[in-house]
Amino acid sequence: MTKSVILSCFLLSSMMASAQQNLVQYVKPIIGTSKMGHTYPGATVPFGAVQLSPETDTLSYEVNGKYNGDVYKYCAGYKYEDKTITGFSHTHFSGTGHSDLGDFLIMPTQGKLQLNPGVASNPKGGYRSAYSHNNEVAEAGYYKVKLDDDNIMAELTSTTRVGMHQYTFPKSDQSHIILDLMAGIYNYDEKTVWTYVRVVNDTLVTGYRQTNGWARTRTVYFAMSFSKPFKSYGRKSYDAKQAYRGFWGKFNQEQNFPEIAGKKLKMFFDFDTREGEKIKIKFALSPVSQENALQNMRAEISGWDFEKVKAQAQAAWNKELNKIQVNTSSDNKINFYTALYHAYINPTTYTDINGEYKGLDQGVHKADGFTNYTTFSLWDTYRALHPFFNITQPARSNDMVKSMLAHYDQSSLHMLPIWSHYANDNWCMSGYHSVSVIADAIIKGTYSGDANKALDACVATAKHRDYEGIGYYMDKGYIPAEKSGISVSNNLEYSYDDWSIAQLAKKLNRMDVYNEFIKRSNNWKNNYDSATGFMRPKLADGTFKKEFDPKDTEGQGFIEGNSWNYSFFVPQDPATLIEMMGGKKKFATRLDTLFTMHLPDEFFAHTEDITREGIIGGYVHGNEPAHHIVYLYNWADQPWKTQAQVRHILNMQYKPTADGLGGNDDCGQMSAWYMFSSLGFYPVAPGSDVYSLGSPLVNQAVINLENGKSFTVEAIKQSEKNVYVEKVLLNGKEITDHKIKHADITNGGKLTFYMSSKPKK
Predict the structure, then answer these.
(1) Bridge partners, residue 261, by sequence
(2) 274-315: per-residue pLDDT in tens?
(3) Phi and psi (nearest 5°) for 249?
(4) Which residue in 112, 289, 558, 581 has the most C-beta neighbors within 10 A?
């Protein structure tokens, strides 16, 4: 080989090596684990079915038959402020304001066997352990912590469907691994419907458990394999006395009995360990069967090389993180890539390695040509997360829409998902925002399926008269306050959703559907009170409800918000809203008031999802309904206020600390807002191909698109003081209307912002 060829090969390999940066180093999963973020620090891979993470307490959903408010702090199972860990379970939601999951909790211990988790004030009284953040490491795809009470080092990593544990034990003839099949998040006494465990041999255990909670018919199957044979095993049943148990009493089922069934079970596996010996566990999940769980395990982790699995998990993350390469400050890089990490956790894969999954009809289906997904927190994620996927994850976005349509086909109610997980719809929150996600994907060219069939599913969902006031909405143009406690927010959200259906119908030249739904999309006007300038509840007789306070979040007709925020929720038609509110100057003044007013604590004292940390003036960034509002200054001809306020929100609401999120991350929506806004544009109305411009936080960003092209954002003279935009060029041509289109991004090119310390008025 000649020197010139060697040099050419070296240069080529150097270019390829530099093309993908080491971005995993900027991901800090601990961000959002304190206060309101509700994120978890454990190990998962992009869109993985397994989320292997520590639990820090065992609070019940109810106390004395009533809701226990403290359980809200444990939506992700882990609370940074806690001092003990109760174990490591395999399923978690990221950033939600309600919860479920926490399946199959594993805890390594040594010494006298204890099957009760004990209490935080006395961790040695149970199997839980004290720990310190000084001995804790949380990275993308990897988690490590020292369990102080038993001197055991715990390490976790994962593949898509398999969690891998590595526990380093001290020398002991009383080392144990506990499998708590009663533990769960948002748990209560009767949550577990049934549990089955089969000990196949001295290293393999399979089984399933069915729970009734947020998802009422959720069954999860597992296969659990040990790297070392256990010397003995057993179970303890906490079932109440049953009237009939058959003749199983002929056996001693407590010790070394291979087939266990019941509602409340805990298993234990005993080992002798040498000093520093590592016991590893592979724990695979399946929505279909024990056999599929075992297939998933064998396909995804064939051996016992923990470091190899960890490296694969982090390589998977690095590949996804490199879809956007940003140049900005160190703290901003941490915020950005942690946001990107949180955005790529959900939705989660809900398909076995052989393509099978369980549907809403409880039957086994096979995903033909797509990956089936679950965990659709649509009230949150339709706003920015799914539009973000249409830029950075179009293939997955395509599969997500196909998953929603499969959900529709299997639904006995013939409805698209509202908030779906594990072959269930939990019906949480308002609106039917899957129609927004579907319309956005089709309009932006992401969806490859039958668009007309998708539109039919949207129409059928929007006409489901007996779902949360839709019949009243269709007949009267609004939902009477007597009929719903969230009548106004429902009306506003239905109106937006109907607009997105209309946009899809127009694209498909279904003008009868377009005319019907564009008319319905104006129903928001029926809750607008021109006398006060606020959206407010309307009674069945057509008059406005007299008892009304636009600052209050309780009893005013809104879900997780107040009229000051919801009155701006007309993302589909800001121009008409501005006209109804008295014109651009008055509208801008109202926005100014929102961002500068003081909202006393009493006005959000009765909602868990709104706290002081997430509020700027009266603007609630810590919850989703107001996420588009800051961009409305662009419609009022005062774009410099959008620019300044976007940067203020970015710096105030997102920090590289455990308590760095001002509200629930909500399956990536808060994170998607951060990334869009950091890049300088935002999808005010998904279902449109238009993005509204703001003020980029990055110095430069390159979006590496799936089509092989790249889109670059550049901010000239970027600084903390230079938050105002002097001018914007798209591929060298000046933009004067403060917007770009989706095709401008996907066609590749460069968006250049020239920044200044002075507003351009």
Answers:
(1) 196
(2) 999 999 999 999 999 999 999 999 999 999 999 999 999 999
(3) -65, -10
(4) 558
CA atoms of 668 and 665, how far apart (whole Å): 5
Contacts of 222 (CB under 8 A, 6+ apart): 90, 103, 104, 206, 207, 208, 283, 284, 285, 286, 290, 293
Identify the CA nearest to 167 among candidates 23, 280, 53, 317.
280
DSSP labels for 492-535? HHHHHHHHHHHHHHHHTT-HHHHHHHHHHTTGGGGGEETTTTEE
Pairing verdict, β 204-211 and 277-286 = unpaired
What gap in Å lies between CA 83 and CA 85, rounded to an integer?
7
Long-range CB pairs of 558-561 (<8 Å, 24+ gap) are 558/486, 558/488, 558/489, 559/429, 559/430, 559/486, 559/489, 559/490, 560/97, 560/607, 560/609, 560/610, 560/623, 560/624, 560/625, 561/489, 561/610, 561/620, 561/623, 561/625, 561/626
Q: What is the pTM (predicted TM-score) of this model?
A: 0.96
> At 419, phi and psi to the nearest 5?
-150, 100
Triad 188, 51, 88: Cα angle to 5°: 60
DSSP string, 200-259: -SSSEEEEEEEE-SSSTTEEEEEEEEESS--SEEEEEE-PPPPS--TTGGGS--SBS-SE
Give me the count of residues in the chain: 761
Where does 231-355 have alpha helices with state H? 290-300, 306-321, 330-343
Q: Going by C-beta distance under 8 Å and a sequence separation of 6 or more, which residues neighbour residue 465? A: 471, 474
Q: How far is 436 from 446, CA to CA, in rounded Å?
A: 13
> According to the model, what pLDDT value does residue 606 have?
84
Alpha carbon dihedral 452, 454, 459, 462, in 10-degree steps, equals -170
**Category of 116 on φ-ψ map: left (φ > 0), alpha (ψ -120 to 50) or beta:** beta
With bands split at pLDDT 50, 70 and 90, how would you rate the model's confidence at 8?
Answer: very low
Domains of the chain from N-terminus onward:
24-319 (2.70.98.10)
- Do residues 198 and 69 make contact, with C-beta atoms less than 8 angstroms apart? no
Strand, helix or coil for residue 145: strand
380-411 pLDDT, tens digit per residue, is 999 999 999 999 999 999 999 999 999 999 99
For residue 439, the model assigns a pLDDT of 98
What does the block give as tokens for 699? 């110095």
pLDDT score for 2? 45
Q: What is the pLDDT of residue 382?
A: 98
Which among 10-19, 547-556, 607-616 has the top mean pLDDT?
Answer: 547-556
User: Across-strand partners of 280?
Assistant: 166
In the structure encoding, which two tokens stand for residue 443, read together?
A: 């309009």
Residue in this structure with the two tokens 């095993």, named with its chain if needed = 233
Q: Write out the two tokens for 93.
A: 């939601």
**Cα(323)–Cα(709) distance, rounded to whole angstroms?**
11
Say which DSSP state 379 is in: H
Q: What is the β-pairing status of strands 277-286 and 162-169?
A: antiparallel
C-alpha 208, offset from chain centre: 25
Q: Classify residue 571 as left (phi > 0), alpha (psi -120 to 50) or beta.
A: alpha
Q: For residues 100 and 16, which has the higher predicted lDDT (pLDDT)?
A: 100
Residue 4 predicted with pLDDT over 70? no
- When pLDDT is cut at 50, 70 and 90, the band that residue 605 belongs to is confident
Mean pLDDT of 453-476: 98
Rounded to the nearest angstrom, the gap between the alpha carbon of residue 156 and the centroid of all alpha carbons in its chain is 21
**Which residues does 569 contact at the CB level (< 8 Å), separation at least 6?**
489, 492, 493, 496, 524, 535, 625, 626, 628
Confidence grade of residue 361 (pLDDT, cut at 50, 70, 90) = very high
Q: Using one digit for the tens of pLDDT, what is the confidence trace for 649-674?
A: 999 999 999 999 999 999 999 999 99
Return the residue matching tokens 């935009």. Answer: 725
CA distances from 643 to 614, 667, 722, 760 (A): 19, 26, 10, 10
